[in-house]
Amino acid sequence: MTRSAIVLAAGHGTRMKSQTHKVLHPVCGKPMIHHILDTLEEVGVDQIVVVVGQQRERVAAAVAGRADIAVQAAQLGTGDAVKAALSTLRSDTDTVVVLYGDAPLIRPQTIASMFEARETSDAAAVVLTASVPDPTGLGRVFLDGEGGVLRIVEEKDASPEERQHRLINTGIYAYRRDALKSSVGRLKADNAQREYYLTDTLAILRSGGERVIARTVEDPLEIASVNDRAQLAQVEQICRSNIARRWMREGVTIVDPNHTYIDADVVLAPDVTLLPGTLLSGRTIVREGAVIGPHTRLVDTRVEAGAVVQNAVAVESEIGEQAQVGPFAYLRPGSRVGKRVKIGDFVEVKNSRIGDDTKVSHLAYVGDADVGSHVNVGCGVITVNYDGERKHRTVIGDNSFVGSNVNLIAPLAIGEGAYITAGSTVTDDVGDDAFVIARVPQTTKPNYVRAWKARKQNQNLVKGGDDSGH
């Protein structure tokens, strides 16, 4: 039995007031329409057709490889959009679910239940309904005693008594393919907007003696859709809450879910602890026992078991087991921090590998470097990696010591067990076990300061006399 889905994504969404198509706006780290595709793929739908219209190239590119494309040349309503998709449907399709690219919260269980209801009942169509506390502006659905749809009454046509009814039409349907095709073909644009409404197919089917039934969504928040930025923020909040609840049930401690932000593709292990102000983005992975936060942002970063990352930012980086990063550290793309490494306060690392048990405790910049194991990088150390035209690498061997306020002028190689004294500027390669002093010798003049100050004062008096004209 072949199952297909039509996702309506033709309208640009003018109320978003954005140059970005509505369905491409992100919710919890990825475009809304990707949430829909993920849901349909989890259900195991055999074919997905996305109907595009405005900005069709951008939307088509966003779903490339995951869906077939149908084009609605002019936006003439939901019925016309579905009609544009019919020729793209597989010929062996039995059941078609129609849903919207701007409603990213729908759950796989809900879609699966619609397919099952349509197939087990052999109804022509299934309407997804919801019981909401405030149905204002929405079409009311009235059922018979067996769950069949008697009628759908739009707000403008409802009597005062009918407006008290709280079961509403979500606009999401499952159809028998032939029933969808025949009813869409009979749609008329006899309304003020001169558009073809998919909702009208239900009345067409019922008038032809076909059965239309309803299934009620368990959580009305699932059907929340986005038409403007305020609704986008509301949907984001619901999605974020759902994600946090799911991870807490999987054994993750989230101290303050209201101030923790986890993207949809993040992966967390049991016994991870997330402190307030944590933002986990992209495809970040955090392993067992790691503690993240407070006020930490990780983007496409892998954190191994037992690591602690606090008050820090890491982008496209790897943090090893039992490592400590922060507070106030920045790992830029390409950083690989080994086991039990310490990256301390106000340390920046970029495109570098830091070996196991190495310490970069504070106020340092390590860029384009390969730092070995058991290395001490002192306060104020800088790898001078850029000559104004090209980037160069620094290599520091295992068990080396780099003292405070050292400049390492790349390209540079420092051997194993080397010792670089504080304040040195190192320009030449250093061999194994070498001791380096690369600084200007100190000059000390005894009993000098008072005489020096007196000379300066006399010089200032002379200058002052010249300026006065005497």
UniProtKB/TrEMBL annotation:
Transmembrane segments: none annotated. This is Bifunctional protein GlmU. Its EC number is 2.7.7.23, 2.3.1.157. It catalyses: N-acetyl-alpha-D-glucosamine 1-phosphate + UTP + H(+) = UDP-N-acetyl-alpha-D-glucosamine + diphosphate; alpha-D-glucosamine 1-phosphate + acetyl-CoA = N-acetyl-alpha-D-glucosamine 1-phosphate + CoA + H(+). Homotrimer. It comes from Alicyclobacillus sacchari. It is found in: Cytoplasm. One of its GO terms (biological process) is cell morphogenesis. The gene is glmU. Residues 5-131 form the MobA-like NTP transferase domain. The lineage of its organism: Bacteria, Bacillati, Bacillota, Bacilli, Bacillales. Binds 1 Mg(2+) ion per subunit. In the C-terminal section; belongs to the transferase hexapeptide repeat family. In the N-terminal section; belongs to the N-acetylglucosamine-1-phosphate uridyltransferase family.
